[in-house]
Every structure is written in C-alpha cells, then in structure tokens.
Design goal:
Blueprint (H helix, E strand, L loop, with lengths): L7 E4 L5 H12 L3 E6 L14 E5 L7 H12 L6 E4 L15 H26 L6 E5 L6 H5 L10 H21 L4 E5 L17 H14 L8 E3 L3 E2 L3
Parallel strand pairs: 1-2, 1-4, 2-3, 4-5, 5-6, 6-7
Antiparallel strand pairs: 7-8
Helix pairs in contact: 1-6, 2-3, 3-5
This protein binds NADP nicotinamide-adenine-dinucleotide phosphate.
NADP nicotinamide-adenine-dinucleotide phosphate binds next to helix 1 and helix 3.
C-alpha cells in the first residue's frame, strides 16, 4: 500500500499506560504510529514492534512543536488520521495553603500548552487525512460543572490537575471552533483506567480504553466535535 494510504496515528505520553495501549491498538488496526515519549519507557520492548516509530518529545518544552515536525518527517508519516494527546502528570495539592504555584504552571504546560504545541505541529498532516480526529485526553475532574457542584464524592480537590484539565478543555473548544467540521476535536475522559496515575476506583484496562478511543476517533459523528465525551457514548457537562 502506498504510504499515504496508510492511516497515521500520533500519540503523546506514549510510554504511559493509555499511550502505550493506543500505540499497540493502532498498529493492530493497520495504522502507522508516531509514539512520542518524554523519556524512553522503563521496558523498551513495550513499544518495540513494527509500525511504531518512537521519538523523544517533552511536550512541555518550547521547541516541542519543532521536535514533532521533525519526528513526523523522520517517521515517514505524512497524514495523521488521529492525534491522541495523552501526555499527563498528576501533582497533588488538595489544600490551597499547600498548593504549589509551580505545580499549577507545570501542569498547565503539559496538559494544555503541550497539547496545543503538538496539535499545531500535526495540523498540516491532519489536513491530509480524509476524516481526522484530535482526542485530547481530559478528566471528569476538569469539568467546571462537576467541580462547582461539589466534585466527585470522596475525592478531594486537586488544584493543579483540575485547573490544567479545565484549561485543556478550553483548548479543545477553541480547536473545534476553528477546525470543525474538517477536523473533529473531542475532549475525552477515558474512564477510570488502571495505569500509574489510576484513581482508586479504576475499573477499565488500558487496552479497553485504547479500543474505545480509536473506535471513537473512527466513528464519532461530526456533531460530537467540540463535546466532552466518556467512551463509548456518555456526554459530560463542561
Ligand atoms: N488513568 C486514568 O484513569 C485517567 C483518567 C482521566 C484522565 N486520564 C488522562 O489520560 C492521560 C494518560 O494517562 P495515563 O493514565 O496513561 O497515565 P500515565 O501512565 O502516567 O501516562 C502519562 C504519560 O505522560 C507522560 N508525560 C508526562 N509529562 C510529559 C511531558 N512533559 N511530555 C511528554 N510526555 C509526558 C508520562 O511520561 P513519563 O513516563 O516519562 O513520566 C507518561 O508516560 C493523561 O492525560 C491523564 O490525565 C487518565
């Protein structure tokens, strides 16, 4: 098959639980994958399979976009059908007095500005795909509606994570406003997934989350762009 006929998937945070599973699932579906990792995974074999091009990319760096552009060129992936922004950090700070402003800024830089840098670098290649999708992995905890109603029962506020996810949600809305319907852009709460940052009530495996995410990218109708979704088809309030 000519390279341009093979769907391309870019995933950030690809050494993480959901990112690795997305890379594997995408290859199983016949896609070529650019797996962007902050640092090589502890076990390099998790991403060492045909169809996956692994590249270092710290999305919090100013030059992250240029690095992604170069990585796309090196990988030979000219069209990006799906971009999954999965890079994420959790900085705890459940009391105002103990919350570090640096943690908030670092979290904003990774979850929101990092996703912006990568989306900008991928845009030309997204526009080469017939029906592209950007999935920004967010969290139910980034919902202003949920937080202002008291949040999830029993879960303490976490300033840095929630502020960063809420900002990333606005990024999703802005990208939607500019790019839809040509590019579908969704804020996706992946569910409670058993990874390194899993919540105590995690009930979904990374592999299941990855299947849901790629099904969503493939099947989400245009009207779902600009919405806050938990796969397979639950809509959350912003
Ligand atoms: N797991 C859940 O239940 C859940 C629920 C809601 C939302 N999410 C969101 O889903 C996404 C994936 O989470 P996960 O559960 O797969 O967590 P994870 O296993 O901790 O993976 C997150 C990945 O992001 C990478 N990362 C951190 N900072 C980065 C940076 N500056 N540049 C590039 N990569 C960076 C981490 O790299 P290192 O390994 O080098 O630290 C890690 O590989 C996150 O955005 C998270 O907030 C997860």
């Amino acid at each position: 098959m000519p390279a341009d006929d093979i769907p391309g998937v870019v995933v950030t945070g690809a050494a993480g639980g959901i990112g690795t599973a997305v890379a594997r699932e995408a290859v199983d579906r016949g896609c070529r994958v650019l797996a962007l990792v902050r640092q090589p995974p502890a076990d390099p074999s998790v991403l060492d399979f045909p169809g996956v091009h692994v590249c270092p990319s710290d999305v919090s760096r100013q030059d992250a976009g240029d690095a992604v552009t170069r990585a796309l060129a090196r990988s030979g992936i000219s069209r990006v059908d799906v971009l999954v922004n999965a890079a994420g950090i959790v900085r705890h700070g459940t009391r105002l007095a103990a919350t570090s402003a640096d943690d908030v800024l670092e979290s904003l830089n990774v979850h929101c500005v990092g996703a912006l840098r990568v989306a900008r670098a991928c845009l030309p290649a997204l526009l080469r795909a017939p029906r592209p999708a950007v999935l920004n992995l967010t969290s139910r905890h980034g919902s202003l509606a949920l937080a202002s109603a008291g949040g999830v029962q029993g879960v303490e506020v976490s300033y840095a994570y929630r502020i960063a996810k809420a900002a990333q949600n606005m990024l999703t809305a802005c990208l939607h406003q500019e790019l839809a319907p040509r590019v579908r852009v969704l804020a996706v709460h992946p569910g409670r997934v058993s990874t390194a940052i899993a919540p105590a009530d995690a009930d979904r495996s990374p592999a299941e989350a990855a299947r849901h995410l790629l099904d969503l990218a493939e099947n989400a109708p245009q009207e779902w762009s600009g919405r806050f979704v938990e796969p397979p088809s639950t809509f959350l309030e912003w």
